[in-house]
Model the fold of this input.
Amino acid sequence: MADKRELSVAIIGAGAGGIMSAIKLRDSGIKKVVLFEKAADLGGTWRDNTYPGLVCDVPSHLYRFSFAPNPDWSQTFSPGSEIYAYVRKVAEDNNAEEMIRYNSEVTKLEYNDKRWRVTTTQGDQGEFDVVVSAVGILHHPVYPDIPGLDSFKGDCFHSARWNHDVSLKGKRVGIIGTGSTAVQIVGAIVDDVAHLSMFQRTPQWVMNAPNLPVAEEDKAHYRAHPEEMSAMYDQLAATMNHGFAAAIVGDNAMALEKIQEGCQQSLDQGVQDPELRAKLQPDYSAGCKRLIMSDRFYPAIQKPNAELVTDAIESIEPEGVRTRDGRLHALDVLVLCTGFDPHRFLADAEVVGRNGQTLNEAWSQGNYAYKTICVPNFPNLFFLGGPNSPIGNFSYLMTAERQFGYIEKLIGLLREGKLEEVTPKADVTAAFNQSIKDAMPQTVWASGGCQSWYYDRFGNVASWPWTFAKFEEDLSAPALQDFEAA
Done:
């Protein structure tokens, strides 16, 4: 058998997906793997987000790498600090940090003569045969466009840039937003603050999901019987991916009905005051927005020092927030739980492919890719969490591993000399993306009657419109006929 071609691979982003990719590439025999990270530490979103009450909304024993089971999760839904520690431990156990170049944000990728030249904030980093983007989607905070935001004289910060130097004890705190982050923060801080004002634009569906501690004897049992952790992983995957995921794409009407009933029951039984309950009642289908998992929010928002404000915000003034009813809500601290821009991908870098075409030009009418992985005219550039990846209440680590397994097979074609470049055919890619548009109306995101961060600026839903089983099937093995010939 002929020797495999020696390749060099650059990975962008040292979050969970980038760490996993680096470990697996090195284990496959690729000697030159360099991971470029813009910050001074690894961890991605679990490094950046440190707000009070932060927990994952995917069960702990599903939110892990398949190759690194963890018997020591402390709760049903893991705290963010634990997930950060887990990613760091996996990196340390696999000597991944020796592949990372910190404080090295990629500013330019340029393809020439079958190689990518990588430039970072540290300068020219040389050429690589392959680039894997693992930048994630939840790391560009969105700040609200509200008149007077800069005039507020108290402490003001985005939830993803939490200022731990600011004490909330005895303060009047405002929360703008009602998504998962806002809900978690409200539950965590309400007992410490003098008064809490939660400014709601759109009510959210909340599923009552108790976050129970994991008993020490259970942890010991998992250590002694790792096969039972694997069985739990498979069971949770079947429930979340083949139950919930199928429901929201229109493939399991009964499951969607049960989700709707469960959320409605949580609201009806959890909120006693009919006026407040009416304010918290969504008018769209459950699952249309990312479903919130919490057993703390409804009790928290009903406390005497908490207030749900549904009047629209008119402006922000030095003393607080003024709503359209003319009322000034006096505040000491203002927290912006206004989410992220999940559609930017590599927008901060200049990515130049064949014939001088930039990725921003290719995506000027919306992001697209072949099977979420790669884009015509940008050879040997692969994406984890790329356009139309399954997003929502799923394990991103499982999604990223499925995608990387496919990418690894494509890289294998390069190593074996079966292809000199890996780039999908333009017509095949166009047909795939048309099939996405054709399938999207059956999903709850398109038919459920809401607007959400799943929508891009062109009105396209940027998620996977089929079952997770189809995602796994589509990414099981490359179809060579879909790629340009060598």
Q: What stands out?
A: The chain has 14 helices and 19 strands. The first helix runs from residue 16 to 27. The longest strand covers residues 106-112. The chain has a mean pLDDT of 95.
